[in-house]
Amino acid sequence: MASGYPKFQDVKHYLGIENSQQDALLVATLKRAIATFENMCGRVFVPKTETRFFDANGEEVVTPRRLFLRDGDLLSIDSLKIDGVQVPVGEYYLGGVQPHFVIKIRDSSDFTFHDYEESPEQSIEITGEWGYEPEVPEDVFGAIVRLTAWLYQQKDNAMELDRPVAISNAMVLPATLPSDVEAIARFYKRLI
Question: Are 161 and 115 spatial neighbours (Cβ–Cβ below 8 Å)?
Fold first, then answer.
């Protein structure tokens, strides 16, 4: 496991670049590769502590005691508040394997996700660590390095093809993403 996303130095090493002339381009290309890979997978791999809000009458609340996390992976909860009231830790639990995608309120609890006084909008507040795993999986790290290198090498493609083109007696096909990168992205694709 890697402690974070690749740095541009990882890409330089992979490409065998020893000078610093292309550093700015590599940094920009790495940012693009990370965003592309995250979009391909529908998830973020570097955990981040943040607060997210949900509506009590929103599609995430599938029952009064079950909140389904459609837009992110949850590793842990630091705080759960419903209509501004702190829900004690023993009153709820995370469902599904890590990363979690369901928060359940115990049947014995007096709390429900439908508890609100004035407005259901953003009445559920979850502060926690959001991300796929505590550390970036090695194959994801490698796929991002590979994708960055591939994108960097595309700068030399003067034709910039986006569709098949006939040249003389040959057909030139547009470049596609590396198949190993696509395979890793499919493996980690968020299906929910």
Answer: no
pLDDT tens readout for residues 54-63: 999 999 999 9
Q: Judging by DSSP bridges, how do beta strands 124-130 and 102-105 pair with one another?
A: unpaired
Q: Of 96, 144, 160, 136, which Cα lies nearest the Cα of 2?
A: 136
Task: Please give the order of strands across the beta sheet that includes 66-68.
Answer: 61-63, 66-68, 102-105, 92-95
Whole-angstrom Cα distance, residue 142 to residue 155? 21
Inter-axis angle of helices 138-153 and 8-15, to 10 degrees? 70
List Cβ<8 Å contacts ≥24 apart for 6-14.
Answer: 6/30, 6/141, 6/144, 6/145, 6/148, 10/145, 11/145, 11/148, 11/149, 11/152, 14/145, 14/146, 14/149
CA distance 14 to 123: 48
C-beta of residue 95 within 8 angstroms of C-beta of residue 103: yes
Please report which helix (H) or strand (E) contains residue 47, including its range: none
Tokens of residue 191, six digits: 């299906």
Any residues with CB less than 8 A from the CB of 18 and at least 6 apart, and which?
12
pTM over 0.85: no
Rounded CA separation 48/130 (Å): 5
